[in-house]
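Database export, one record per block. Field names are fixed; values are copied verbatim from the stored entry.
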Amino acid sequence: MIRRKDSIAKLFRGLLPIVIDVETSGLNSATDALLELAAVTLSINQHGQLVSDQLYAYHVEPFIGARLDQEALAVTGIDPFHPLRYAIPEGQALYRLFAKINQLCAETNCQRAVLVGHNAWFDLGFIQAAAKRSRIAAVPFHSFVSLDTATLSAVALGETVLARAAKRARIPFDVQQAHSAIYDVMKTAELFCYIVNKWGG
């Protein structure tokens, strides 16, 4: 079925899907730092297929007093204070991303955005916590609805781990590049588009 290019609002009932991945200094959004934030916007191509569009990514400074769990940092390989990270405050990163999302919502006639993520509750929780710390009241994402590719992959592909689900979908996945927000968000976007295009209405 070929969908109109402007029908993304209809496809998701007025919600604009934005694929998000975060890298953090731990698992607790209230105490641990948001260190990387990456987003992929989606669009519908001339064949009516949902595809990845633009990538936005930010290195983020730990907020004052953030807990930096060394095991978490070892997994991601992030040095929060490396001078070549060119990190910015979390409020500034959110402001830039939210401005773009609001613009896209207006352009696509969507009421608000919906976060797409692999274990989306984790990403949404960190964004909401960072927005609260930064006193950003107008978060463009739906406050409790999200689209979780781990759940979708469990049903559609019989896998919940991102690398394994990607393999089932025949999406190349390099485990050596995993735990980078940019790499993970791009692969999550590919996986989400694959599932929607194959099984979506």
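Remark 1: The domain at 8-199 is CATH 3.30.420.10 (Nucleotidyltransferase; domain 5).
Remark 2: Confidence is low (pLDDT under 50) at residues 1-5.
End of record.
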